Amino acid sequence: MSMVVRRRRITAASPTPEKLATFLRPLEESGSVSFAAARAGIGRNTVHARRRTGPAFAAGWQRAVEMAVERLRDTAVTRATEGTERPLWRRGRQVGTIRDYDNRLLQFLLRAHRPEVYGRRRG
Which pTM does this prediction carry? Predict the structure, then answer.
């Protein structure tokens, strides 16, 4: 005789203010809703529902995403201006490193910050 075991899905329909604050911190750090929800122990659907119904939480979410975007922008500027190091190999041995610069990233940043000068020209 086989028994069917049903697992009950446990959700936090009404997460505590502490859990919501815990969600916003990793959202600010990573920009990832999935990552932040997992860190806070809240389901993605729950935080999206709270965002739709809670203006204060929605405002905190927006600030967290803006901070995450600023962090990404800072990282992109650093990578474009300082480059990234990669190992230099000769005959199977690492003999040094080379600094690579991403010119496409640099062009993107220039267009984004000075579109009047570096934007695509039509003509």
Answer: 0.67
